Amino acid sequence: MGWHLKKCSAQLVLHLIIGICLVLVHIFQSCVLNYYIISQAKDSLKAYFWFAADFVILFLFIGSLAIAHRYLHYKRRDRAGQFPYSPKRLIPHYPRSKLGILPLSYVSWVVYATVVVAKVVVIFTSEIPNTLQPTDRWGPQLLKIAIASSGAVFMLLVEGHHDAEPTSARNTYIRLLCGSTAYEIMDSVQFLSLLILSDSHIVMTFTLENTVLALSAVNFILPTLTLYKLSLTDFGLETGSPFVMLVYKLLHLFLINGSYMVIRIKLWVSLGGDISLFLMKNILGICTTLYSLYPNLVQLYETCRPPPPQKPDDLELDDVQSEALRRPAADGEPAPL
Q1: CB within 8 A of 196, min separation 6: which ones?
Q2: How many other β-carbons are positioned within 10 Å of the β-carbon of residue 158?
Q3: What would the pLDDT profile of 296-335 be if each residue is shown by its tens digit?
Q4: Roughly how many angstroms between the first and final C-alpha of the chain, as a whole number?
Q5: Integer Cα distance of 73 and 58 in angstroms
Q6: How far is it, in rounded angstroms, from Cα 140 to Cα 148?
Q7: Maximal C-alpha separation, the chain
Q8: Secondary structure of the chain in the HEC alphabet?
Q9: 242: number of Cβ within 10 Å
């Protein structure tokens, strides 16, 4: 009993530390991005409404971590019945398998990512990127660090929703997933830096600028599928849906690695831009994704394939056995087994 209480206390302290770090990173990112927006529109009060959206996201994160802690505590106690905050209780006629465990995890992320993308669009469609200088205190480096902190937000959000043992394969899987997602976000930040004139020294067309901005925005929304996949599997405890994994990999292949590679090669060849080392990351990502598609396609085929029909001989044998079982045994005749 004492060991159980000690473990629960340690888990509570860990969740508090994760929650505090998540709040601090979110506040840092929100304040920095809001400063860039407000500095451009000092005479407009509309820019200050971004703080209201940040407070909504803050409450979503806190609520999501609190419900996750309650769920993990509920699961450790091995209580019978249904978790009080289960989506099945909120939506009775909707299967839990479609919503997953702790759906507030991916709901909070999609709201957060939408707001971050909106801020990025406001910043990079204004004159702010053209005025930033590397020597400024509020220059391009701080802007990129603020946007890249979304990777830390994702990692902390996932860490607050599971209780995997540190040496388990489940914990290794979750850590690798978090690390790869954070790396993809950094790739998007590097991709966005093409729009900062003092960094790239490239003057792009209006269409190309919008393409870079749109593809970067997609990479902030895609982790929603990762969280949804983790939610479906109870964060690594169950087998995931091959369809969700296949959709995520295909989107990532064509919208991220493939598109980023094409645009970087175009800027390198056509405009003489400085080639980024992330180009090699895109090439390796394409090769890795293509290699890993085959097992997912096989798994999806096995899941969707109808069961094989029974042979006629098997059907006749089943009918004979069923008839023998239904017929009462005569006197002196042994009953059918």
Answers
A1: 129, 132, 140, 143
A2: 22
A3: 777 777 777 666 665 554 444 444 444 444 455 444 444 4
A4: 51
A5: 23
A6: 12
A7: 104
A8: CHHHHHHHHHHHHHHHHHHHHHHHHHHHHHHHHHHHHHHHCCCCCHHHHHHHHHHHHHHHHHHHHHHHHHHHHHHHCCCCCCCCCCHHHHCCCCCHHHHCCCCHHHHHHHHHHHHHHHHHHHHHCCCHHHHCCCCCCCCHHHHHHHHHCHHHHHHHHHHCCCCCCCCCHHHHHHHHHHHHHHHHHHHHHHHHHHHCHHHHCCCCCHHHHHHHHHHHHHHHHCHHHHHHHHHHCCCCCCCCCHHHHHHHHHHHHHHHHHHHHHHHHHHHHHCCCCCCCHHHHHHHHHHHHHHHHHHHHHHHHHHHCCCCCCCHHHHHHHHHHHHHHHCCCCCCCCCCC
A9: 18
Token pair in block for residue 47:
């820019």
Residue with tokens 């044998």: 317
CA-to-CA distance for 160 and 65, rounded, in angstroms? 6
Q: How far is CA 320 from the centre of its chain?
A: 54
What is the rounded average pLDDT for all residues in the chain?
Answer: 80
Q: What is the share, in percent, of the chain residues with pLDDT greater than 90? A: 32
The two tokens of residue 256 are 């991220």
- What are 245-256's pLDDT values in tens digits? 888 889 989 999
**Tokens 């993809």 correspond to what residue?**
184
Nearest-angstrom CA–CA distance, 55 and 108: 12
- Do the Cβ atoms of 8 and 73 come closer than 8 Å? yes
pTM here is 0.83
Q: pLDDT tens digits for 17-60?
A: 999 999 999 999 999 999 999 887 777 777 788 899 999 999 99
CB burial readout 165-178, b (16+ within 10 A) else e = eeeeebbeebeebb
